[in-house]
Amino acid sequence: MTPASRIPAADRDRPRGGPSVTRVAGLTRHNLKLWLGDVQVPILLLGMPLAMMAFLRPVYRDTLAGSGFADASGAEQAVPGMAVMFALLGAGILAADLHREKMWGTWERLRASGARTSEIITGKLLPPLLLLAGQLAVLFTAGTILFDLPLHGSLAGLVLVAAAFAIAMTALGTALSATIRSITALGAVGNAASVALAGLGGAIVPLSVMPEWAAALAPATPSYWAMRGFQAAIFDSGGLTTAATSTLALLAMATILGAIASWRFRRSP
Amino acid sequence: MMLADPVLRIRGLRKAYGGVVAVDGLDLDLARGEVLGLLGHNGAGKTTLISSVAGLRRPDAGTITIDGVDLRRDPVAVRRRLGLAPQETAIYPDATVHDNLRVFGALAGLRRRALRRAIEQTAPAFGLDALMHRRASALSGGQRRRVHTAAAVLHRPPLLLLDEPTVGADVATRDALLELVGDLARDGAGVCYSTHYLPEVEQLGATVAVLHRGRLLARGTTNELVATHASSAVELAFDGDPPALPGATAHADGRLRVPADDPAATAAQLLSRLPADAHLTSLALVRDDLEGAYRALTADPTRHPASEVDRHAEVPA
């Protein structure tokens, strides 16, 4: 440190705070950089689902053939299923990221900054939302190129459902972080919840071969509506109407999860 | 007497956690350009006070005004007028020093060129210019502390809240930090400086507020507090009944206090005269300095009602 160097005098006439976009853009850029610098993000969000797709596609081909889809390649279940399951695990990473912000003490610092609460939330959640949307885009594109994923239905419908699912997963990660107080518990509960939601929603096993009780619970999960929307676009089973229904259901769930997160954060010390 | 245009004005502040009152009806003014040393034992209410001013804790009662803006009415405008360096180092360990400064500067509303200039000006002052591209997790504790404090001053706020800023810092870092705090105050910032290190307060030429159990015990310049409360003495504690010592008075906690012009010489005399059956457990030399005043104030706070020592009107702005 150089005591001789001095901080220049403050500009007292400068308006304080600056425009909102400065704060949101600054926080978004910062968080995006942190996410992209985290080695587990590309492995968990892209590497593992692609590997799982390659392993599971032959199994799903046989399963789908037994369910009446004789021409299925297996990618119709493997690609959306693994995309959904690993997006759920991405929600867990988001929850852990929000917890770490508290552990580092930077959460209090953000709250004491000149940023509004809405600016902090936008700057914190926009990066994971973009990454989750990017994850789905890469996995479906790779699925088409590498695993011959067909698209008989509406591409717009697929994009709509993917966007709504990314929003729902961002809300789920935020709600998990707000509800589960310790990062250790979050690791265990978050992973278990992700696998359970993926299973119930038909991401691991097609709904047609799931036990009756599980199929009855499925519509309560975001993964069910995502799988339904994605497979509507893949098989052309309902087209845009099914995609719109799935999108609305996912956005409704995102709203509920967001409300839970907001309520829990307000009650926290 | 109130200051005409304080950068910080607190009136009747009260904050309790469950049944524990952390801050109890506190009034405090801080002038522009003033460094206020906030003193008190652990649990005295220093951090709760700072957190309340920063808008991180909602007070149960009272008002806080910063740079003329009421915290309750416009918390965002208030937060834009302050810089906070919390007690615990709060930076992003996985980000570089530059990225840490950039994000907190952006949150303070500094745009591209202004942000770049602020970082270029602030980093060398904190000795960070050679560390800008190092990850914070790779820095020493003292270096991290400098990043932590630099992030609070980037936007040159009129009010700076520093909660024990030199904890974990080496001597050189501490000296330089103190010099920077002095510079910021000379430039017109009001600085609220919470610390347990009394020599830092003297080195800063700071005014002093002593908190005890959430209440303001004393407020004034170092000289005023020393003149009012400090007197050199020897303090002795015993296991069991204390012996009768000439001129000694007993504290509420049982310690004996013997006034002394030369505490070291008096201590030697007292030790040589102690009865054989007296079980001395501790002996302290109390000098007529800020530490002496602080010890006297906090040893028996009932003797020092705040109204008697709240002499802020005499503090030079």
Give structural notes:
The complex is a heterodimer of chains A (269) and B (317). Chain A is mainly α. Chain A has one domain (22-29, 38-64, 71-267). Helix content of chain A is 75%, strand content 0%. Chain A contains ten helices and no strands. Chain A has helices at residues 20-36, 40-66, 75-103, 106-111, 117-147, 155-179, 183-200, 212-217, 222-235, 239-267. The two termini of chain A are 37 Å apart. Chain B is of the alpha/beta class. Chain B folds into two domains: 8-227, 3-Layer(aba) Sandwich (Rossmann fold), CATH 3.40.50.300; 230-314, no CATH class. The longest helix of chain B is centred in the middle third of the chain and has 16 residues, at 171-186.
Keywords:
heterodimer, A: 269 residues, mainly alpha, elongated, B: 317 residues, alpha/beta, Rossmann fold, 2 domains, six-stranded mixed sheet, four-stranded antiparallel sheet, 11 helices, 14 strands, 25% strand, globular, disordered C terminus
Task: Write a brief caption for the model.
The complex is a heterodimer of chains A (269) and B (317). Chain A is mainly α and 269 residues long.
